[in-house]
């Protein structure tokens, strides 16, 4: 069944709620568009891990979340797990966002002390 917004009985799948665009240049950038919640966290995790695996240490790998409209607990878990994976493999992970929903989720959970968050890709590269 195809998802139709507003039509009862239809459900969106994760690819309709979240888009991942990867740029394998240097640095490696994953641009994320949509919502990151429990229905899309696996897609986000797989995309971020694949991006990190393609990076040459020390990276950086940049997760550009500027077009993310919602970052739920499941998405925060992915960020923490991928930060740990990158640390273990000598890769620098940088989160980019100036989007209020993303910044707020990171701040209220205290993850701003753990994750490196920049407002722009250029700013993230300066700190890489």
TrEMBL record:
GO molecular function terms listed in the Swiss-Prot or TrEMBL record: anti-sigma factor antagonist activity
Domain named STAS is located at: 29-128
Among Gene3D superfamilies, the record links this protein to: STAS domain
SUPFAM superfamilies (alphabetical): SpoIIaa-like
CDD domains linked to this entry: STAS_anti-anti-sigma_factors (cd07043)
Record-linked InterPro entries: Anti-sigma_ant, STAS_dom, STAS_dom_sf
Record's family?
Belongs to the anti-sigma-factor antagonist family.
Descriptive protein name: Anti-sigma factor antagonist
Q: Give the originating organism.
A: Amycolatopsis pithecellobii
